[in-house]
Please model this.
Amino acid sequence: MLELKNVSHSYEDDVKTLENVSLRVERGQAVAIVGANGSGKTTLLKLLNGLIFPTSGVYEFDGAPITRKALMDAKFAKSFHRRIGFVFQNADAQLFCGSVEDEIAFGPRQLNFTEEEIRRRVDDCLELLEITRLRRRAPYVLSGGEKRRVAFACVLAVNPEVLVADEPLASLDELGRNLIVELFKTLRSTGKTLVFASHNEEFISEIADFRFNVEKPNA
Ligand SMILES: Nc1ncnc2c1ncn2[C@@H]1O[C@H](COP(=O)(O)OP(=O)(O)O)[C@@H](O)[C@H]1O
Ligand SMILES: [Mg+2]
Model:
């Protein structure tokens, strides 16, 4: 489903953030991305979502190379972004609508679903993340944990085949963590491909088929 072949990446010309990374994820597999702070986990997840591109090597999504040029084709970009969803570590970076329900409706609306279908998806995702009572609130007034739930609801409303999440348990209380752990178990059992960065050993061993260790390249 996802394959990185000898991928290197630099944000600046002289500093490598990833060096010669190869990773293959089959459909339905769950992979934990592990490594120290600053080792390149977020960078790797951004690459998988086509937000940044390899400086060398190849990234293929379901056999199709994901390059800046490929994503300039609006039709291809739309289908790619429909098939893979990304929940950022910092939900503020991805919430921008006036209400939680508009926020969750945004993705399905972009995909031209009927209003009835959009309403159904919004209701389902509000329920799944246990945030129905927040539906008319503005996302920016919510707590960090509530925002994280909204961000998951937004991504799941599009029903992507692959879900990528950056430290989905970070800075959540126990209740919030349990909800996300249960969500991942459900997603796993429904055959979603899951890629997540985490430091939580219990979560990793409960969900992941394997772990992939990223290491900071030597300077
Ligand atoms: N936008 C950026 N521009 C330049 N350097 C960056 C940028 N984002 C991250 N880095 C650097 O890339 C390295 C890897 O960062 P990151 O992928 O965020 O690591 P992790 O998620 O494992 O903590 C770090 O040294 C970080 O400082
Ligand atoms: Mg990170």
